[in-house]
Amino acid sequence: MIDLYYWPTPNGHKITMFLEETGLDYRIHPVDISAGDQFKPEFLAISPNNRMPAIVDHAPADGGAPVSVFESGAILLYLAEKTGRLLPTELRARKTVTEWLFWQVGGLGPMAGQNHHFGLYAPEKLPYAITRYVNETNRLYGVLDRRLKGRRYIAGDDYSIADLASYPWVVPWKRQQQNLDDFPDLRRWFDDIRARPATVRAYEKGEPYMSRPTVTEEGKKLLFGQTAASTGGGGS
């Protein structure tokens, strides 16, 4: 059994997509990031960066005590290795999947996240910042579009954790001020993954939480005003 600490954000969807693809038993523990659940001591014990998602695996491969994992990329690698699914074992194929997984966690996710922040949540509309991150998101869409030319999935013929890491960050393409029709191979790939039964089930898992406002005014203070001192990590 996997305990999944989750909220229906792109990084949260990555993990439900994996779990639905592989059929692992799991239960969701909602972490309402606008209400400050991510700062609760019991959550910080498994996710010291006070970010979701995080998991606790109660049946690790070594047969020992439960294993906790934080950071969505690390969770995907852990679960892929646990199940032997969605991550090739052959050297070069595995290298390619991990390259594109790290491309997402180091590039597409952070840049699209800043796009969301300055376009939707920042108290001041700063044209330079908005243009900067809209353009960088556009550049990254272009990188992915070129990669997908002549390939069904990011690493080739087989669906992998590279695909299900990137897909949720393309779902909000309209709020990122992008047009998928400008990227035909990306659009084809996106529509393919959107239609997968496991993707449909994963997004349905988030629906019960979508009725709650993800970012209230108080939530903005929690999400965007953190310092070491305010999160108990230092300061005076």
TrEMBL record:
It comes from the Bacteria. It comes from Tistrella mobilis (strain KA081020-065). Signal peptide: none annotated. InterPro entries: Glutathione-S-Trfase_C-like, Glutathione-S-Trfase_C_sf, Glutathione_S-Trfase, Glutathione_S-Trfase_N, GST_C, Thioredoxin-like_sf. Belongs to the GST superfamily. Pfam families: GST_C (PF00043), GST_N (PF02798). Residues 1-87 form the GST N-terminal domain. One of its GO terms (molecular function) is transferase activity. This is Glutathione S-transferase domain protein. Residues 90-212 form the GST C-terminal domain.
